[in-house]
Amino acid sequence: MATSARADVNTLYLDLIKRCLTRYRFDSPYRPLAPRPGTLKASLYKPVRRLLASFGLELVRQAPFNPAAREQGLDWPAAAETMVGLRRLDNVQRCVKDVLQRRVPGDFIETGVWRGGTVIFMRALLKLHGDTDRVVWAADSFQGLPKPSGAYPADAGDRHWEYSTDLAVSVEQVKANFARYDMLDDQVRFLVGWFSETLPAAPIERLALLRLDGDMYESTIDALRALYPKLSVGGYAIIDDYGALPNCRRAVDDYRRQHDISEPIQAIDGSGVYWQRER
Ligand SMILES: C[S@@+](CC[C@H](N)C(=O)[O-])C[C@H]1O[C@@H](n2cnc3c(N)ncnc32)[C@H](O)[C@@H]1O
Fold it and tell me: Does pLDDT of 160 surpass 90?
């Protein structure tokens, strides 16, 4: 009796924290006005936005909450700490539970954390399960995506780097978000900089969870090359954008082909996928 009552409390806590991190059903009904980078509207609006900001003002538009979009991580939330949506947080929860139950060795990492919501959730799961050994690694430039370097033709013309207002979140802000949930402690470590520089040198021995959310070919392949060899057998590789961003998908397919990875890819929702390492 006591055990099942306890299980319910855990489920309720996790449901609530997922709703907080995604602001499911309680996000702001307004979004900052942000014309698509590269358009005439965007270049005309840029000086206006700067001027307004100097007065502490921002133009917003009405954006009614769309539950289906927030479940599947299809919108960019105004205030939520994560944009991955409820279904992909459910997937993180299942993978974490499984590696903890089966004692698969290794830390957890997300490459591409934005406001930090998914890594905050990983830390909360460790706390809930009483794990005091594993570290949650948060890797990001904390200044948005890189301009395509030319090294990877697949990224030619990629414009994610232009979304600096939406996608660049400072490490101080992400730490403040962790602190807001009381999750900032020495079981969380930050890798600040471009993946190509930070990941190969990161002092990570082993991973049980490798979650990639860097959107581009370069960001995805750099993370796979540096980190997949450290993923334990029984651990999980999770790719946030496989179904939504062709460059990301191509990087994953190339890496899997080059390294003879044949574990079946499982869909989470229309975008996220994962597989469990078997060998
Ligand atoms: C879509 S957001 C991640 C969303 C996040 N996982 C969440 O829970 O909402 C992509 C993030 O990847 C980071 N990023 C992408 N490519 C990168 C690279 N090559 N090096 C460092 N950071 C990168 C960006 O700064 C951005 O914060």
Answer: no
For a mutational test of ligand 1's pocket, the pick from 123, 195, 213, i.e. the residue with the most ligand atoms closer than 8 A to its C-beta, is 213
User: Domains, the chain, ranges and CATH?
Assistant: 2-65 (no CATH), 85-276 (3.40.50.150)
C-alpha to C-alpha distances, 90 to 19, 28, 33, 93, nearest whole angstrom: 11, 23, 31, 5
Q: Tell me how far apart the alpha carbons of residues 190 and 229 are, in angstroms, rounded to a whole number.
A: 20
Asked whether the whole model's pTM tops 0.85, one would answer yes
Distance CA 89, CA 96 (A): 11
What is the 16 CA–ligand 1 centroid distance (Å)? Answer: 25
pLDDT digits (tens, 9 = 90+) for 112-126: 999 999 999 999 999
Query: What is the C-alpha to C-alpha distance for residues 245 and 249, in angstroms, rounded to an integer?
Result: 6
